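Ex. 9. Protein: Tyrosine-protein kinase CpsD.
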Amino acid sequence: MAKNKRSINNNRYIITSVNPQSPISEQYRTIRTTIDFKMADQGIKSFLVTSSEAAAGKSTASANIAVAFAQQGKKVLLIDGDLRKPTANITFKVQNRVGLTNILMHQSSIEDAIQGTRLSENLTIITSGPIPPNPSELLASSAMKNLIDSVSDSFDVVLIDTPPLSAVTDAQILSSYVGGVVLVVRAYETKKESLAKTKKILGQVNANILGVVLHGVDSSDSPSYYYYGVE
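Predicted structure tokens for Tyrosine-protein kinase CpsD:
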């Protein structure tokens, strides 16, 4: 598998905003439509995005899916739940002095931590805030569950970017607080065994897997991103 390794452009730009007419943006809209249909069918508003391993493109996918929903007219909140290697503040070019950590430690209100974005008036974000010494404990707290319940009353879509499942249990913990889970896998890199293990881990907490985003397919093979269900 290593012989077929392809590089992925990891530049922090959001193609659904920069080039909304591109084929990749169209694929993200397809992903959005599929997720939207499942959320409406199941009566849920929140989901998290995770991956089996690092560098799969989950944060890129999270940002673009959030923008795609906002472009549809949905009121969207993106939460950076990766309290180990946060990226939302870099991607959206906003400050990270106050964020999720501050809310969970009762140092800030939700209202004070929420930030608007220049990309869409429909899209707001909560960055990670300062990196804490105990990320898993904070994410497993009742404060996190209460946060998700609270914002789900105010937004049409609540999307949480979480760490990879191979390294820590954060996504597994949070999956019981949200309506569903979207997995991001990296073409030519993610092994079937790793994906099967991830599915098993999520199954242990009865997580609702909405589907999988395949990230980084070479354009000469097929569209760069596509979405499919998990059996």
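Check your answer against this statement. The chain has a mean pLDDT of 88.
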